Amino acid sequence: MGDDGRLHAIDDDDASSAHQLSYIDIYPLSNYYFGSKEPLLFKDETLSDRVLRMKSNYAAHGLRTCVEAVMLVELFKHPHLLLFQIRNSIFKLPGGRIRPNESDIDGLTRKLTKKLSANGASDASHWEVSECLGMWWRPDFETLLFPYLSTNVKGAKECTKLFLVKLPESRKFVVPKNLKLIAVPLCQIHENHKTYGPIISGIPQLLSKFSFNIIGT
């Protein structure tokens, strides 16, 4: 609105600039190869056991930081998100908790190598970790994660960071036998809290600032 109180049209150059998006190159799922390796060991614990473990770790190391990878492929001309499926009902992003004094990128690279590369593979560290897409916070041990941290919260207990990881044109994923690596369409994930939880179901919205450049279809 101008000084005279009337609405003015936006110049074409301004509109073009406002709608410029960053591109993500996405390659077909058929470009990638999949193998298996020894299963990962998971802690068999109750919710109360997990809370006790988190309290103990917090007392020793402070804020728990988790880093997770958002990796996209193309299938049926649509962008798909790579997810781990555990026991047919639990879905997780590749990643995990970083060590004390470990950087986010180093921690995520280590976790991706552990869960998706062959043991001792020469290309194990070749993960292109890009920008941080969002952060989620757990204000207390027994509360849910939130995509913000209220000003009245002192000493958050956990922070989960989502990073865009750009895949090369081709790669071999070597997956532990007790995990499934699946490709799920973004349209199925969008706002599907019941199946995928609040973090994963919010990823399509986080990716809305990008334009997908689907290659090789």
TrEMBL record:
GO MF annotation list: mRNA 3'-UTR AU-rich region binding
Biological-process GO terms, alphabetical: mRNA 3'-end processing; mRNA processing
Location of the protein in the cell: Nucleus
Record flagged with keyword RNA-binding: yes
Pfam families recorded: NUDIX_2
Keyword Nucleus: yes
Domain of life: Eukaryota
Functional note: Component of the cleavage factor Im (CFIm) complex that plays a key role in pre-mRNA 3'-processing. Involved in association with CPSF6 or CPSF7 in pre-MRNA 3'-end poly(A) site cleavage and poly(A) addition. NUDT21/CPSF5 binds to cleavage and polyadenylation RNA substrates. The homodimer mediates simultaneous sequence-specific recognition of two 5'-UGUA-3' elements within the pre-mRNA. Binds to, but does not hydrolyze mono- and di-adenosine nucleotides. May have a role in mRNA export.
Assembly behavior: Homodimer. Component of the cleavage factor Im (CFIm) complex.
Family listed: Belongs to the Nudix hydrolase family. CPSF5 subfamily.
Protein name per Swiss-Prot or TrEMBL: Pre-mRNA cleavage factor Im 25 kDa subunit
Native organism: Cucumis sativus
Source taxonomy: Eukaryota, Viridiplantae, Streptophyta, Embryophyta, Tracheophyta
